[in-house]
Structures are given as C-alpha cells and as structure tokens.
Design goal:
The complex is a heterodimer of chains A (about 575) and B (about 450).
Chain A lengths: L4 E7 L11 E4 L8 E6 L8 E6 L2 E7 L6 E5 L10 E6 L2 E6 L2 E7 L7 H11 L5 H13 L8 H8 L5 H8 L10 E8 L9 E7 L3 E5 L6 E6 L4 E8 L5 E7 L3 E6 L7 E4 L4 E7 L2 E6 L3 E5 L5 E6 L4 E9 L4 E8 L3 E6 L2 E7 L4 E9 L2 E9 L4 E6 L5 H8 L18 H42 L12 E8 L4 E10 L9 E7 L4 E3 L3 E3 L8 E10 L8 E8 L7 E6 L10
Antiparallel strand pairs in A: 1-28, 2-3, 3-4, 4-5, 6-7, 7-8, 8-9, 10-11, 11-12, 12-13, 14-15, 15-16, 16-17, 18-19, 19-20, 20-21, 22-23, 23-24, 24-25, 26-27, 27-28, 29-30, 30-34, 31-33, 31-35, 32-34, 35-36
Chain B lengths: L2 H13 L12 H10 L22 H9 L3 H15 L4 H13 L3 H14 L4 H13 L3 H14 L4 H13 L3 H14 L3 H13 L3 H14 L4 H13 L3 H14 L4 H13 L3 H14 L4 H13 L3 H14 L4 H13 L3 H14 L4 H13 L3 H14 L4 H13 L3 H17 L5 H17 L1
Helix pairs in contact in B: 3-4, 3-5, 4-5, 5-6, 6-7, 7-8, 8-9, 9-10, 9-11, 10-11, 11-12, 12-13, 13-14, 14-15, 15-16, 15-17, 16-17, 17-18, 17-19, 18-19, 19-20, 19-21, 20-21, 21-22, 21-23, 22-23, 23-24, 24-25
Classes of the chains: A alpha+beta (about 575), B mainly alpha (about 450).
C-alpha cells in the first residue's frame, strides 16, 4: 500500500462497467459537496444506468435508453444557485440533466441525403417505379464511391431478400429519409470566463468525422469543423470567445491540435499505436498508448520525453493537486497498480484490489484531492490524498541508479561430489580413458558400417533409392488377435515415371500364422500416390508366442526384392469362444 | 433538424419530467425487431411513423473503445452483433475484427476480414495497408507489394507505405529497390524503424561501412534510442574501434540498463581488459533478462576462468554448451578449461567437436596438439601441429608448443628448428606473458646449446 493515499471507501460489488469518459465529478445538486456521476453501460448486457454517488452511498440510480458514450458536467446558465448541468452523449443524442432531472435533449444535425436517392424514394412512394428498378438504381448509387452514402433505410432495403422487397417498400416508403450520425466524444470549453462555475460550450465529435461547438444557452451550432478521422478523445483549453485549442485524438491513431478560427488542424502527432488516454498537464500533452508507452509533447508537438511502462496501461487521468501545486498524471496498469508520474519520474505506486478500469482525480464530497478508481470487475474504490503529503520525496528516490539486478547472485550451476571424483579419476587415468574410448569408437563405427552394408544388401529399408523403382513402403498391424489385419502402403516416389509390375510377397512362420494372401499384385504405381493393400492374418497359437512377417516388394523380372520390411507381430489375445 | 425540433422534444419532456426512463419510448431496436418479424400485413396507417432504422456506424466508437482497452472478448461480441445486424456492411467492425484476429495470430482470417473491409471501401488507405500487412505476415511478400503499390496510388508519399514496401523488398532480396524505398520513407519522415531496417539491410549485404553511416545518422536523430546505440556500438566493435564502441554501448546502457545487446558488447570489452568482476556485475543484469543466452553463459564462464575459478567456469560453459551445442566457441573454451584442469581426455572431445564445427581455425589444432601430447599420442599430436601451421603460419604459440613437445620426446634438432621459428614470429608481436617468458628462459638456452 502506498504511503500517500488513504483508503476512504471501497465497494467491490458496485457493479459499474463503463469507460473513462463516462465518469465525472460535479456538485450536481448545487451544494458544496461534490458527487460522482457515472453513466454505466451495464457491461453491455444489463440495461445502462445513470448513477450518482454521494459520499459513501449511491444516491441516484436511473435507467437510460442507450449505451452512453460520454458524460460531462458544465454550466449552461447564470442563474443562482449555481447548479451545473450534466450532458450525457448516447447515440445521436445529447441528454442534458439538471439536478439529475431530464432537462433537454439535443440531436446531432442530420447529414445530407443523396439527391438521387431521395428522388427514387419519392417516385417509389408515388408508385412510379417498381421495386426491381428501385433496387437496381440504389445499388448503382452504392457502388459509386464518390457519391453521398446511402441512408440506413436504403442499405437495409438492398439487403432484403428479393421476395420481401415489395413488402419492405410498402412498410417503409412513408418514412422520411434520414441519415444520422453518432456522437463519439464529448468535451466542454469555457465560453468567456475561466472561472470554475462559468458557462461552457459543449464540443461534440461525431462518427461522420465532424466536430461541433455548441452554444450553451441556445444549443445552436457555433462552429462546425471537419476532421480527417473520427474523434475518440477531445481535450480543450482556453476560452471560446478569446482563443482556444482543442486536442483531438483520432481513431486512426493521430492526435490533432485545432486552433480557433483555423479550418484545418494546426499540428498533427502521428503515433505508432493507438492512444488510450490524453491529458493536458499545463502546456504539455501527455499521452498513454496501447503499446505501453507514456509520452509527452509540448504545445508545438515536439516530443519532450517518452518512457516505457512495464505493463499494459488501462487508464490515464490527470492529477492536479492544487494545495501543493503538483501536476502529474495517474497511470492505471493491468497488474492492479496505479502509478503517479510527475513528468517522466515515478513518484508513487499504489496497488489496488483489482485492475483499474478508469480513474478520476478531483473534488469529491468535501475533499479537494480524491481519487476515484473503478476496477475491471466493477468495484468502486475511493482514496484521499494525505494533506501533508510530500510528493517531492518520491522524486528523489525515483532518480536513476544502478539497476538492483546488478546485485543479484548469479545462478551458477552447482557441481556434485561425483563430478569432482570423476575429474580426479580423469586426471589419473586420462590416457587409458582416451585409448579405451577411441577403441570403442572404432568398434562402434565398424558395427554401424557392417549393419548398413547388410541392410543395403538385403534391401531392408523403408525407402528404395534404386533408379528404376524408387518406392516407399510402410506397413502396420491392426487388431488384437487372433485375427489381425496387415495394411501395407506403397508409394512411388519418382517424380515422373510410373512403375508397372510390382507385387508384394509375404513370408512368415507357417506354424504360427495363417495368411489370407501371401502374394498381392500391385496396380500401375502412379508417382506420389499412396496405394494401400491389406490382408488378414490369423494367429494359430494361443501360447502368446509371436514372430515376424517379412514383406517383400518385387518388380517382375527381377529376382531380388526392391524393398524388404520385417513386421514384428504383437502378442495375440486368445480366442474367445462364445 | 432544426431548433424547433428541440423545442418540441423539450415540451415532451416537461410533461412527465420525473420518470426515469422517459426516453424509453424511443427505443429503436425493439420496434425494428417487431417490424422484421411481422408477417406480411397490409401497410400500416399512413400517419403512423415507423421507427428509424439503426445507424450502421452506431457502435463503431464502442468497438474502438473496447479495442484500445484490450477487452478483446467483449469487443468480438459487439463486432459479431454489429456484423450480423448490418449483414457484413460495417467496414469498421470488419477492420477491428481483422486487428483482433491478427493479435490472436489468426493471420489468414485477419486477411479475409481486411479484404472484406477493403471491398466495402476500396478508397481507404488504412484497409489496404492492413491487407498488405497481413499478406506480409503470411510471407506473401510479392502479393503484399502489389497491394502497397495500389495503396501508393492513393497516397504516394506515405512514409509507412514506403517503409513497408522496403521491408518486403528486402525479403525478396531486391536490395537496391529496398534501399530506395527506405530512403524515400526517411525523406518524408525520420523514424527509428526505417533507420534500423536500412541499417540491417546493409549488414545483410555485408556493407559495414554503409551500415555504420546509417546508424550514425540514426543516432544523431534519435540520441536516446538504446537499440540504435547498441547496434552502432557493436558495429564499431566489429570494426575494431573499441573506444567508440564502448562509448556507444555505455550510452545505450544509460538509457536502457537492461539492453542485453549493449550489456554483452560492453561486457566483452571490459572482459578483454581483464576487469572480470566489473564484467560479471554487468552480466548479472543480462542473466535476469535473458537467462537462456548461450553467449552470456559462455562469457560468464570465461570471466570465472579469468578469475581462476575453474569449476565454476566449467559449470557455466557447460550450460552454454547445453543451450547451444553447435557453438564452436563454447567448445573451444571448454577444451581450454579442461586442458587447464589437466583433464586431457575431456579436452580432446571438446576440441575435436569444435574442429568439426569450425575446421579452419589454427588455434584449435594447436590445442588438439597439446591435448594429444598429454594423452601420449605423439604421432597424431605432430599431425595436429602441422595442420595448425598449415592454416596459420605466423602464430608463434603453435611453434613454441610444438618445440616443447618435440623436445620432450627427445627430438632436439626438430625442436630447435621450431623454436627458431617461434623466436622469429614472437619478436614481431609484443606479447608479454609471464608464463611464456619463463618457458622461453628455460627452453631457449637448452635448445641453443643443443644446436
């Protein structure tokens, strides 16, 4: 357990499953104490819910319609008392809550519809064209890559089976054509004052690669901006009325810096891996990536530092400890650790009971510096930063030193007494040992050579290398006895020449085995095909005696076999008389 | 969509603001299911509005979030649902499916997913890049090159494309074209990967000077990349510039104290200087990172050998030998260690094994000669010495050992001849070994007297 955190509250069965973006700390009831608002996606199997934690209790738990994408807290008006609104993005909508009561719903502007598509459906409505025609025309629009994409209605129509198409048209033709997009990211941007409770604009990123800035009071689109890729995370600084910068982490792995008034991104950071989280620390940008790196870029997107993190990063959160003017980042890893980094220096490591899935540092209840950690298993853990903590101490110990591994003992294999004895023996009798060894080695070579020569002579190899009949033979015995089935496979290994006139002869001890066939003629052997022949073998002895069966492969006209195999028969079970 | 619509929504809400699931009536999916299952009926009343059809890209953000959080199981489930719902028309779902399949080493399946995505959107650079990458991983470099060429039509200056083309060309042994690609890629964007691939290619071609120049430039651009630094250090080491090699390897170790390549390089330099304890501390780090490296255990063994801890040396060398039985250097060292331990029979085995692996290395034959002399096999020992001299004529040690052997067998005249040769070559080299000096002091006068 880390020295700097106090465990304030833990609920391992809180059952919260969502993403980092679906969590915010805010005084939603307009009081001095802050609450934690979480849009829970129910692990994609239970209904999604909006949850508000107040102190150590769950004070609100209400169903929502769709899987939430993101949630932010912001002020929409100047009325007293100052109560912030909560904006939750889900699908194409933004649901705005005030006092945890539904307040307003905003729909992302619809996209343009292909004019030709509109005309076609109008004609279909008026029964001017038939279903087949409609299908063909829509299909041609779809395959034209330059045109405006089709609406879901037309796409669905194109996927409908031919016999259901007319029904589909009759059901859906009255529906107005609509092409909607989905919100992928949400962020706030202070409008004209930097105060904590000043009015903020909403920034929305959509699936259609657009970014909108919305007026907080009228919910009209103030700025619409096209992006090269879909936004995943948005981070803003500055004021809408003065000057601002928006960081956009895109789905293609790039990070864009958008400035006020600019039509195209001012800078672009190309990453080797997808960002898991981005945070602004002062003027710098800290990025955690999927390939276990934590990187920092400055405002001009120069890479200031980059450090490898030993485990997979699961979440990243900013940490602004105002009492000690400490600014750092919190990194959650899949070994259940939460680390605090100030710049590239590790300040603290804390082990949490499970893998952290998301974290938020900020004011909770009445405590300014609280860390809320939600684990992969859905547990909620709240930690309070000790007020008198000295985070600079951690810095000193984090400085580089010799690796502790230098002082580990080497694992040198130990030697036994036998080894030492053998060493001594060798010193005394080395010459004799050497001579004996050389002698035995010659004998071994001689025996090997003899056996090899014999095998060559008797053609006792599974593969024949002779030029006129390159054959491969394998045999196996099936059964437990007294009846066995002997299967012989022969393959012509030549690349081009077929072999004609090969036959198999089986020879065995007549007193022990009775063969069904002892001569099997082979067909024309086509190269690289396997030919299988088989015969039944009956064992006549019930004494458990075994013998071998010799298999010879001959070619007509040659008196010596091409191949020989000796099959050792298994012991036979005795006959069971029923 | 305009403002009036929002006002309308607002009005609807205010009717029943306290219900929690007030948005429930707009649930899209359930209504769609009902519509799909309904048997054919007369068209519904014209005024009744049917629900909107689900948006194809609806869950793309969710798929992406699950993917980057490495929740692959859940992600696959969402992708499966999405692909079924859209009947394989959701490009992004197919793309991520391919990424996950590749991550799970199902390369062929990932190729099919990316191809399906590329079919849906042939103008997407990203899809083509991934098709190319999967082909490359499958070893189909030619096919990958074709895909990259097609992608290059969409974006001719993409550094990633150029780099990947270069990598494929290296595999197809077309070094000139590959070099061109890497250089183009570096011209657009300087990346560590392109530098290291270009450098590797030069090493493959045996062009060490070229490789050195590349790595020098790479280190200029990426001064904190320990991988590049260590390779540059090793290159210097191979070219005999120990000073610079040590400098770069040291830098590499500062940025990454666990870089085994740098540790091994620097350790061997330290070992050459006789600082065995310092080298051993470095090797300890490497031993915890790569405990199964034969080179590491070989070097550790020789450190112990240098410290005259012969039993430990043999232990370590035998481990190295176990890890890589066909490494002649380990066999050579084992031979040397056993000779020192007076275990001549074992020494003979290791030396002859080393000779089988490396037949053209004179010191091996010299050691074999020494071993055979002690095993009382003078005729073979002589042959071994002759062989050593035939391979390398200016190794003074061979002549010295040969002379000693001949002298001990009583052949003074031949011994003197070999000794003369030893003196001839010995003076040329500034070797100052106390053992050798003692031997020379002993042997010299006797042989000179005899001659």
């Amino acid at each position: 357990m880390s020295e700097i955190w106090l465990a304030a509250h833990a609920d391992p069965v809180a059952n919260i499953h969502t993403f980092q973006s679906c969590m915010t700390l805010s005084n939603v009831y307009g009081q001095t104490n802050h609450q934690c608002v979480i849009a829970d996606n129910g692990d994609l199997s239970w209904p999604p819910k909006l949850k508000v934690y107040n102190g150590t209790t769950l004070s609100y738990d209400g169903n929502i319609v769709e899987t939430p994408t993101a949630i932010v807290s912001f002020h929409v008006d100047t009325t007293e008392p100052r109560i912030p609104a909560i904006a939750m993005a889900a699908g194409p909508y933004i649901y705005v809550y005030k006092n945890i009561r539904p307040y307003f719903k905003f729909t992302v502007p619809s996209l343009d519809i292909n004019q030709l598509e509109q005309d076609l459906w109008n004609q279909a409505k008026a029964d001017k064209i038939d279903v087949q025609m409609l299908h063909d025309m829509l299909d041609s629009i779809k395959s034209d890559s330059d045109s405006v994409p089709l609406t879901p209605l037309s796409t669905k129509f194109l996927q409908t089976a031919p016999h259901q198409r007319s029904h589909f048209v009759s059901v859906y033709r009255e529906n107005p054509l609509k092409r909607q997009t989905v919100i992928t990211a949400l962020e706030t941007l202070k409008k004209s004052h930097p105060d904590d409770d000043a009015i903020s604009c909403l920034i929305i990123g959509t699936e259609n690669k657009d970014m909108y800035i919305l007026d907080p009071e009228a919910f009209t689109v103030l700025v619409k901006q096209s992006l090269p890729s879909q936004p995943v995370f948005l981070r803003s600084t500055g004021l809408y009325d003065v000057d601002y910068r928006i960081l956009v982490a895109c789905r293609n792995g790039n990070i864009l810096v958008m400035k006020k008034g600019a039509n195209s991104p001012k800078f672009c950071i190309t990453l080797n891996s997808h960002p898991i989280g981005i945070e602004r620390i002062g003027k710098n940008i800290v990025i955690a990536t999927m390939d276990k790196n934590l990187m920092c870029y400055n405002n001009k997107i120069k890479n200031l530092w980059s450090i490898p993190i030993p485990h997979n990063i699961t979440c990243l959160a900013g940490m602004d400890f105002k009492a000690k003017t400490f600014k750092g980042v919190l990194v959650g890893m899949d070994n259940s650790e939460v680390r605090v980094y100030r710049d590239k220096f590790l300040v603290d490591t804390m082990t949490v009971p499970d893998i952290p899935a998301m974290m938020q540092f900020g004011k909770y209840d009445r405590e300014e510096s609280t860390l809320i950690v939600i684990t992969k298993s859905g547990g909620l853990h709240i930690f309070i930063l000790k007020r008198n903590v000295d985070l600079s101490q951690g810095l000193a110990s984090a400085s580089m030193g010799p690796s502790p591994k230098q002082f580990q003992k080497l694992n040198v294999p130990r030697k036994t007494k036998t080894f030492v004895d053998q060493t001594l023996r060798e010193r005394e009798h080395g010459v004799a040992m050497h001579r004996q060894f050389q002698h035995d080695l010659y004998r071994l070579r001689l025996t090997t050579a003899r056996n090899f020569a014999e095998a060559l002579q008797k053609k006792m190899m599974p593969i024949s290398s002779s030029n006129f009949a390159p054959l491969k033979l394998s045999a196996n015995v099936q059964g437990i006895g007294p009846m066995f089935r002997l299967t012989i496979e022969v393959m012509n290994t030549s690349t081009s020449h077929p072999i004609l006139g090969a036959y198999v002869v089986l020879v065995t001890n007549d007193t022990l085995y009775v063969l069904e066939k002892c001569y099997i003629s082979l067909p024309l052997l086509v190269p690289s095909l396997t030919y299988t022949v088989n015969t039944m073998v009956r064992c006549t002895s019930d004494q458990g005696i075994t013998d071998a069966i010799n298999v010879f492969v001959y070619i007509k006209g040659k008196c010596s076999p091409v191949l020989t195999a000796i099959i050792d028969m298994p012991a036979s079970e005795s006959m069971i008389v029923v | 969509m305009d403002y009036s619509h929002y006002v309308c929504d607002l009005g609807k809400m205010s009717e029943k603001p306290t219900t929690n699931d007030m948005y429930g009536e707009q649930s899209d999916e359930e209504d769609v299911k009902v519509a799909a299952q309904e048997p054919i009926k007369p068209a519904p009343l014209p005024k009744a509005k049917l629900p909107d059809l689900p948006i194809i890209e609806k869950n793309n953000w969710l798929i992406h979030m699950l993917f980057i959080n490495k929740e692959f199981e859940k992600c696959k489930q969402v992708i499966k649902e999405q692909i079924e719902m859209t009947e394989r028309t959701c490009e992004y779902a197919l793309y991520v499916q391919g990424m996950i399949q590749r991550n799970e080493a199902m390369i062929q399946e990932s190729l099919e997913s990316f191809q399906a995505a590329a079919m849906l959107n042939p103008n997407s650079l990203e899809n083509l890049k991934q098709v190319g990458r999967s082909l490359y991983l499958l070893g189909r470099h030619k096919a990958a090159l074709d895909i990259y060429a097609e992608a290059a039509k969409l974006s001719p200056q993409d550094p990633e494309l150029l780099h990947n083309q270069g990598v494929c060309l290296v595999y197809l042994n077309d070094y000139t074209k590959a070099e061109e690609c890497f250089k183009k890629a570096l011209g657009v964007q300087k990346t560590e990967h392109s530098y290291s691939q270009l450098g590797k290619m030069h090493i493959l071609r045996g062009d060490k000077d070229g490789a050195l120049a590349i790595y020098k430039k790479a280190v200029e651009n990426f001064p904190e990349n320990s991988e590049l630094l260590s390779v540059l250090g090793l290159l210097y080491l191979q070219m005999g510039d120990t000073q610079r090699a040590f400098e770069h390897l040291g830098n590499a170790m500062t940025y990454d104290p666990q870089n085994t390549k740098a540790i091994m390089g620097a350790g061997s330099i330290i070992q050459d200087h006789g600082d065995f304890d310092v080298a051993l501390t470095k090797y300890r780090v490497a031993a915890s990172v790569t405990p199964e490296s034969h080179a590491l255990w070989n070097n550790i063994g020789m450190c112990f050998f240098g410290k005259k801890k012969y039993v430990a040396a043999i232990s370590c060398l035998k481990r190295a030998h176990y890890l890589s039985p066909f490494e002649w250097r380990t066999c050579y060292n084992l031979g040397l260690a056993h000779l020192t331990m007076h275990q001549y029979a074992s020494a003979f085995h290791f030396i002859s094994a080393a000779i089988n692996l490396k037949p053209k290395f004179a010191p091996l034959f010299m050691l074999l000669g020494v071993a055979l002399t002690h095993l009382e096999d003078p005729s073979n020992a002589k042959q071994a010495y002759e062989q050593a001299i035939a391979i390398e004529t200016d190794n003074s040690m061979t002549y010295l050992n040969y002379a000693i052997m001949l002298f001990n067998s009583g052949d003074k005249s031949h011994a003197a001849a070999q000794y003369a040769k030893f003196e001839m070559y010995h003076q040329k080299k500034a070797l100052n070994d106390p053992d050798v000096n003692a031997l020379v002091a002993k042997l010299g006068p006797i042989l000179h007297m005899g001659s």
